Amino acid sequence: MAIAGNSDGELEKKLWETAEKLRGPVDPSEYKDFALGLLFLKSMSDSFEARRQELEEKTRDEDSRYYTEDEHERQYILTDKDEYKSENVFYLPEETRWQYFVDNATDPQIGKKIDDAMRAIEEENPRLKGILPKGYSRSSLSDNSSDALEELINLFAEINMEAENGDQDEDIFGRIYEYFIKQFAMEGGQKGGEFYTPKSVVELMVEILEPYEGRIFDPFSGSGGMFVQSQKFIESHGGDTDKISIYGQEIKESTLQISKMNLYLRGLDGNIKQGDSILNDQHKGLEADYIITNPPFNMSEWGKDSIADDDPRFKYGMPPSNNANYAFIQHMIHHLNDTGMAATVMANGAMSAQSKQGEIRKEIIKNDLLDAVIALPGELFYTTSIPACIFILSKGKSEDEYRDRSGETLFIDARDKYNEISSTLNRLSGDHIGEIVETIRAYRGEEDAENYEDVTGFCAIADIDGIEEHNWVITPGRYVGIPETNNEDDEPFQIKIDRLTSELSKQFDESESLKREIQENLEEIDHNAN
Q1: Any coiled-coil ranges, and where (predicted)?
Q2: Most buried one in 249, 296, 368, 480, CB count within 10 A?
Q3: Domain-embedded: residue 526
Q4: 182 lies in the same domain as 202
């Protein structure tokens, strides 16, 4: 019997806990390829079987154009590959369907059968060429890999990935897939989660950019979450996903495969290529309408010495060799068209770093490219405790369809906009995202938005002269001020102590981050002096 989906995450949790027991000592960064690959295979098989069942019913429906009493004709229809591909369903040969693996799960050669199936599916569906994971026959899932694969096959066999009762909004595969990716991030640290951005942060950036149509680019595309959320945004607002084109670049081959699987099962095609975005730009001529991304934080040894002096991307200055933040930012600016917008996650240090980073930031601001800065709550990310923010960059502030925002930048301090999930993890709620997004829409002067007003402690608009007065530091707290507090302190003592302890811990973390940044700047100055 298929396991039914539910809204509280019990299905995903049960699957993860069971799958984890089968992993043994295998590192999450390796295990994810096997587990997600099998999930992908199961989802393809379920979609194929659902379409096959639909065709079967239509051949027996007298009101259908498929109706026939001829059994040979019926079999022809059921095996007509175009009848599957026309509905965005991958055609699967018999020995690649899930029931075949269930029937052969105890075979010692089950790993080889899965590898053969992956190759056969790619042969049948050329656009999947090189995407499906292989290596199940030599898997190190456990001391006896065939036993572990048998258990995984039987576990996933209980799930029906297809939406029930025609509910197209129920994306069971997507829920499980996203949950597994998140858990790999939490379980595997940097090795398992370097490609994952929390869904709430992705949703916030997409809601800000409103990418209804045009070219969407993610130069650090990871598992493709930015593209998936863009699709959900468009569909939820009644738009047409055929009006977007997807471009991406990802350095790791295994993560690139995951992102392509993620897109294909949602009916999305993307021009996603492999390579280091800075050192081996695979989209040199691309001018994007939107860039949505989360590059690595404070990346050192990013390859500065390999950059040509006349590289057109670094028109505002060459970033220091020990921090790639402004290499990434300038790469994004370079790939925006004349009215393009970018939303990118950044480590908080990018808002206040001095020396060469500060000079580059100054030039970007003077060229009126900084549209908004949002300080995020701490502990949002699974793989790092480094405090983060969001930069909104825009080349079209003077030509915006709503109002001319030339010379203005919106600052939002959203550090207290979160729900605490655990002692080490926070999350932006839908209400928090809504409050931030509506503030930005009001700032832009969008139709149906409220009239914008500065709110002490939360949001404020500053012009370029005002930013210069703050020495080009763009930490939102400098601009929004401190909210008025109620002098009547009725907060229970223990709750207040817990809150202050938590706040002090976060401030210590920020202090350590700032100390490291200062040390790096001093080392850079010393290096340049010599």
Answers
A1: 497-528
A2: 249
A3: no
A4: no
Q: What angle do CA 328, 332, 333 make, to 5 degrees?
A: 120
Is the C-alpha dihedral spanning 454, 456, 458, 462 positive or negative? Answer: positive
Examine residue 110 and state whether it is found in any structural domain, yes or no: yes
The enclosing domain of 79 has a CATH number of: 1.20.1260.30
307: left (phi over 0), alpha (psi -120 to 50) or beta: beta
In a domain? residue 495: no
Query: SS3 of 65, please?
Result: coil
Ranges of residues in the chain with a pLDDT under 50 are 1-8, 142-143, 165-170, 190-193
- Token pair of 522, please? 């001093």
State the pLDDT at residue 23: 72
**Cα gap 78→90, rounded to integer Å:** 13
Structure confidence at residue 168 (pLDDT): 45
Confidence (pTM): 0.81
The distance from CA 99 to its chain's CA centroid, rounded to whole angstroms, is: 32
Taking CA 250 as the corner, what is the angle to CA 245 and CA 251, rounded to the nearest 5 degrees? 160
At 269 the pLDDT is: 85
Residue 384 pLDDT? 76
Domain that holds residue 469: 197-482
* Same domain membership, residue 438 and residue 307: yes
What CATH number does residue 411 fall under?
A: 3.40.50.150
Burial of 222 by CB count in 10 Å (0-12 exposed, 13-18 middle, 19+ buried)?
Answer: buried
Residue 417: name the closest of 367, 386, 460, 379 by CA. 379
pLDDT score for 4: 43
Q: Would you say how long the chain is, in residues?
A: 530
Q: Please list the residues that pair with 496 across neighbouring strands.
A: none
User: What is the pLDDT, as a whole number, of residue 219?
Assistant: 97
Residue 270 in any domain: the answer is: yes
Q: Which of 154, 186, 218 is the last residue of a domain?
A: 186
- Residue found under tokens 């590959």: 81
Buried b (16+ CB within 10 A) or exposed e, 48-66: bbbbbeebeebbeeeeeeb
Residue 142 CB neighbours (<10 A): 16
Reduce the secondary structure of 89-155 to three states and give it as a string. CCCCCHHHCHHHHHHCCCCCCHHHHHHHHHHHHHHHCHHHCCCCCCCHHHCCCCCCHHHHHHHHHHH
